[in-house]
Amino acid sequence: MPLSSTRRNLFALASVCLAALMFGLEISSVPVILPTLERLLHGDLKDMQWIMNAYTIACTTVLMAAGTLADRYGRKRLFIITLVCFGVTSLICGLATSMSLLIVSRFLQGMSGGAMVICLLAILSHQFRGDRERSRAFGAFGIVFGAGLGFGPLIGGAIVALLDWQWVFLVHVPLTVLTLFLTFAGVAESSDPQAKRLDLVGIVSLSLAVFGLTYFITQGTELGFASPAGMAIIGAAAFSFAIFVYVEKTIPHPMFDFSVFKIRDFSGALLGSIGMNFSFWPLMIYLPLYFQVVLGYDSVNAGLSLLAYTLPTLIVPPFAERCSLRYRAGVVIPAGLFTLGLGFMLMRYGSSMPHASWLSLLPGSLVAGIGLGLTNTPVTNTTTGSVASNRAGMASGIDMSARLITLAINIAVMGWLLLESVLSYLREHAPQHSSPTQLRSAAEAIAAGNLILGIERLPAVDASAGLAQAALAHGFGTLMLYGGIGVWILATLSFVTFSPRNIARLIEQ
Question: What is the pTM of this model?
């Protein structure tokens, strides 16, 4: 018996929401298990960075291509293919017995996840045509996706405590099977016979540029930033980016139309997008390490502590939308970024207290989460709403790419800063006869969360009992300071870009 259109739409919405939940969980639940992975799979700080960056870089790689392929060959068809790939790669992640296998499978998981998300948006737009119906569908999608991001740390910590770290990945296998069933039952096929050609050169050149820059930052300490190998890598990344810019400016239908950057609202909102992923999300990758290693919490309590950081991002967006209508996005987005930076500064202050705990970090965590909640929805609406409707998909693609590229690069930058800050502390406080090699080796172990190994790599073990923990706490203070100052700079740039006349008024006053 064929399903009614209402029931088909209900099944379609359920499949889209389940896929969005899985994608959100893979971003926010994995950071909580990184200290566990570092210990059980014998990884280091670079491995921790690549577990996250492999996913984000892979998403960026397929982002623009997926939209074109879905339009040309069918959104439902590509959604089913990417769902199957996501389930299979999640299974491989859960069965991984080495860091190298886990990183490779995370990259493949990110490719399927990124393509899957693009299909979700296309399916929602096609299947739900009425304004009220579409608004409800996108609202449900946003709530579920936000719940995956917001509750991910707690869910990841609970899975580790009740089962094992593998189930953070393996849980997606049965969810994928259920989503496939709902997709076959409810999602209608759609395509665009006028779909443009795949911009393969642009996709490859941008992906190589992002990967090269990330690799340079992550491996630069080991290779030598000024070494021939380091210079070759950064040179190749710059060359790839130059090719990307040339191609996008010369082909008839570019995936990145640089003319949209002349629109002040679009550019101001994009700076807001970069600001969020410059600070909030990269730090979330490292915060579980702080809670578990510096403060001594287990994975569940670390996940609970992170709720103060993530839950405001679910509660504040409706308020942010009302503020945007009343005060304009050009005011709300910079204000949100400033609030986010203030939260980072409060977190740094809380982490520097003599008896730091989740309570001393609570005010800063809440303020940072409120700042992200104020910024996120207005950014998305402004980037797509500031351009013509036939360019909204391209504008959304640029916004999503900017988020993922900034996230990937800043995960690497924050990892490098953490290592260098720990090393700086050890140079100042370690025993005088520690050699530079010993100090760097100890700093690498401590920055990865292995305090015991870090202490063992220094002479005079008895004198270094509290040194490793203090060095790691100092490193996290540096990350919070870096994130706070950086996002304040981007808030200022966003404010100026949105409305230069406001600057003129400020100067006159």
Answer: 0.81
